[in-house]
Amino acid sequence: MGFGTAMSRGLWATSAAGFAMLLSVSATCAGPGPFEGLGGVWTGRGTIQLEDGSTEKIRCKATYAVSGDAQGLNQTLLCASDSYKFELKSNVLARGGVLSGDWRETSRNVGGTLEGRADRGQFNVDVSAPAFTAKLKLTTNGNRQDVVIRSGGQFRGADISLSRS
Questions:
Q1: Are the C-beta atoms of residues 43 and 162 closer than 8 Å to each other?
Q2: For 14-68, what is the HEC assignment?
Q3: Is 52 exposed, middle or buried, given 0-12, 13-18 or 19+ CB atoms closer than 10 A?
Q4: Could you tell me if 80 and 106 are in contact, meaning their C-beta atoms sit under 8 angstroms apart?
Q5: pLDDT value of position 121
Q6: How many CB atoms lie within 10 A of CB 122?
Q7: 0.85 exceeded by the pTM?
Q8: What angle is formed at CA 49 by the lines to CA 94 and CA 154, rounded to 5 degrees?
Q9: Helices (H) and strands (E) in the chain, counts
Q10: CATH class of this structure's domain 3-164
Q11: Domain chopping of the chain, boundaries
């Protein structure tokens, strides 16, 4: 695998980490905490788009552990296509609709931060790592989550739909 391919996959993993953190947010910020009721397993499929215009189908499985006050969440995300896979681990806190957290892609030893806002089931987040940024939008409706990721560079974006198992 060449450096460009490894870099492209690393950037996808970076964006997916932000996506994984987004998945940890519920449709509303009511109740004891925004992560209330999210514990468990979510699975789904989608596509990723690369700079050259090519796309690949991807499968994902997210597992969430919610804190007692539902203000914190530990997450593991496994995603795979026909040509690669990755594992992301993240920790997220929510305070008054403001999201913050850190993440690590374990196989590539890459990590970064996430900041954003939650508003009525729609979440807009900026993901960052050295030399990379991405915009993420997640919309939750019941047991379904739709995620849109957009970025420049070798990784252009992803469109993924998940449902609770």
A1: yes
A2: HHHHHHHHHHCCCCCCCCCCCCCCCCEEEEEEEEEEECCCCEEEEEEEEEEEECC
A3: exposed
A4: no
A5: 65
A6: 13
A7: no
A8: 90
A9: 1, 10
A10: mainly beta
A11: 3-164
Residue 20, amino acid:
A
CB 68 within 8 A of CB 76: no
Q: pLDDT 10s per residue in the chain (165 long)?
A: 443 454 455 555 555 555 554 444 443 334 557 777 677 888 999 998 888 888 999 999 988 898 898 778 788 888 888 877 778 888 888 898 899 999 888 877 878 999 988 776 677 888 888 877 888 887 777 788 888 889 877 778 888 899 997
Name 7's Cβ contacts closer than 8 Å, sequence gap at least 6.
154
Amino acid occupying residue 87: E
